[in-house]
Amino acid sequence: MTGDQPLTLRPYGARALLAEVPDAPTRRALTAWLESTEHSGVDIVPAESTVLLDVSDMSVDESTAQQALRRLSAQLRDLDLTTLPPATASSGSLHTIDVRYDGPDLTTVAEQLAMSTDALIRWHASTPWTVEFLGFMPGFGYLTRADHNREVDRRHSPRSAIPTGSVGFAGSYCGVYPRSSPGGWQLVGHTEHVMFDVHGTGATAAPNDRITFQAVR
C-alpha cells in the first residue's frame, strides 16, 4: 500500500458516499478496515480504486441515512491510510468452477502471457483467483492473483455477443460472463456454472471470495 495520495470523499446521491483511493492495495486495506468496524446499515461496495458506502435499505429514511454517512465521513477524514495494515489473505468462500478450455482466443492469450496453450490451462487452474470486486454486470467478478503480472490486450474489435459462462482475460483481470453480453475480453474457455441466479441467491461469488478453476473435457 502506497498511501501517497489522500483519501478523497465525494457525495454519491442522497444516500451514498464514494471514497476514492490511490491504488488497489489501499482499496483492499480500506475495505478490510471498513468490514472490521461497525457501520450499521451501510453497504460497502469496492471497485478498482474506489469504495462506495451506500445506505441501500429504503426503510431507512433519508435524514437517518445522511446522519450515518456524516459520522462515517468524519471517521474517514481522520483516518491515515498509511497506518492501515495490508489486507490479509482472503477469508471468503472458496468456489470450484469447471471450465472447458476451448475459447476462441486461447492461443492469443497464451502468446501474450508467453506460454503454450497447455501451460496456460495448467497455470489458470493451478491456484485460486481472488474476487477483487464486482462490476460491469450483476455477478461479474474481476479476478486477480499475485502471479498474473502481464496484461492481456482487449480485442481490437469487441464481439457483439459473448456467450453466458465465457471465461476471459482483459488487462490484469480474469472474469466469467454471468450472461450474454457484448464485450472485448479475450475468451479462453466456457463454464456451465451459474454465476448469477436472478431468481434466487444472486451472485455466486462476493468480493474477497476465491475461485478455483478446474479443467474438464
Structural description of this entry:
The protein has 217 residues and is α+β, with helices and mostly antiparallel strands. The protein folds into two domains: 76 residues, Gyrase A, domain 2; 122 residues, Cyclophilin-like (Cyclophilin). It is 20% helix and 30% strand. The strands form five sheets. A four-stranded antiparallel β-sheet has the order 1-2-4-3, covered by helices on one side. Strands 5-15-6-7 form a four-stranded mixed β-sheet. Strands 10-9-12 form a three-stranded antiparallel β-sheet. The relative contact order is 0.17. The model has no long low-confidence stretch (mean pLDDT 91). InterPro entries: CT_C_D, Cyclophilin-like_dom_sf, PxpB. Keywords: ATP-binding, Hydrolase, Nucleotide-binding. One of its GO terms (molecular function) is ATP binding.
Summarize the structure.
The chain contains four helices and 15 strands. The protein is of the alpha+beta class.
Mind sketching the topology for me?
Elements: E1 8-11, E2 16-20, H1 24-36, E3 43-46, E4 50-54, H2 62-77, E5 94-99, H3 106-112, H4 117-124, E6 129-134, E7 141-144, E8 159-162, E9 166-170, E10 173-176, E11 181-183, E12 186-190, E13 196-197, E14 202-203, E15 210-215
Keywords: ATP-binding, Hydrolase, Nucleotide-binding
Organism: Flexivirga endophytica
GO molecular function: ATP binding; hydrolase activity
Class per helix and strand makeup: alpha+beta
* Quaternary status: single chain
Number of strands: 15
* N- and C-termini, Cα separation: 41 Å
Mean pLDDT: 91
Broad shape: elongated
For the record, what is the CATH homologous superfamily label of the largest domain?
Answer: Cyclophilin-like
Strand order of the main beta sheet, please? 1-2-4-3
Regions with little confidence, pLDDT below 50 for 5+ residues: none
What is the CATH C-level name of the largest domain?
A: Mainly Beta
What name is given to the CATH topology of the largest domain? Cyclophilin
* SSE arrangement, N to C: EEHEEHEHHEEEEEEEEEE
**Under the CATH scheme, which architecture of the largest domain would be assigned?**
Beta Barrel
| Proportion of residues in extended strands | 25-35%
**Number of contiguous helices:** 4
Biggest sheet overview:
4 strands, antiparallel
State the domain count: 2
Query: What is the share of helical residues?
Result: 10-25%
Report the C-alpha radius of gyration, rounded.
Answer: 19 Å
